[in-house]
Amino acid sequence: MSTLPDLDAAVASRYEDTLRSEIESANQLLASGGWVEDYERRTPAQWISTIDNLTLVLWGRDDRFCPTDDAFHYLSALRRSELLVFPETGHWLQHERSTEFASYVTAFLTR
Questions:
Q1: Are 91 and 64 in contact (CB under 8 A)?
Q2: Do 74 and 51 contact (CB within 8 A), yes or no?
């Protein structure tokens, strides 16, 4: 059961926000390795590659905001990672497949 009174409206509103030009510009800058404010000027991929913890990456195959190719970039950058891609699932995997999401996360955290 959703904690949002109108999940469909929230999803539509959130999606519309992603289409704003300033959001798209920020996403392009971040994807190109810019906009990282640390003294070493590392890209997001370089930051991610420093994570040494076992990491579970969950992805919706039909995510129109973050394409599935991005999931494989994370899998490659995170040395100790596992990837699960959910068919017929978009960007809000935790809502769209809440039972499966909770099951996989619980299993991962308790092993």
A1: yes
A2: no
73 is catalytic: no
> Distance (Å, rounded) from C-alpha 58 to C-alpha 40?
29
User: Cβ distance 28 to 61 under 8 Å?
Assistant: no
Catalytic residue among 59, 71, 91, 96: 91
As given in the structure block, the two tokens for residue 76 are 């490659």
DSSP class of 65 = S
**Model confidence over 16-74: pLDDT tens digits?**
887 888 777 777 776 665 555 554 566 667 778 888 999 999 999 999 888 999 899 89
| Residue pair 43/30 in contact by the 8 Å Cβ criterion | no
Coil vs helix vs strand at 57: strand
Contact by Cβ (8 Å): 61, 68: yes
Give, for 66, the enclosing helix (H) or strand (E): none
The structure tokens listed for 9 are 């409206």
Pair of tokens at residue 83:
């990837």
pTM: 0.64
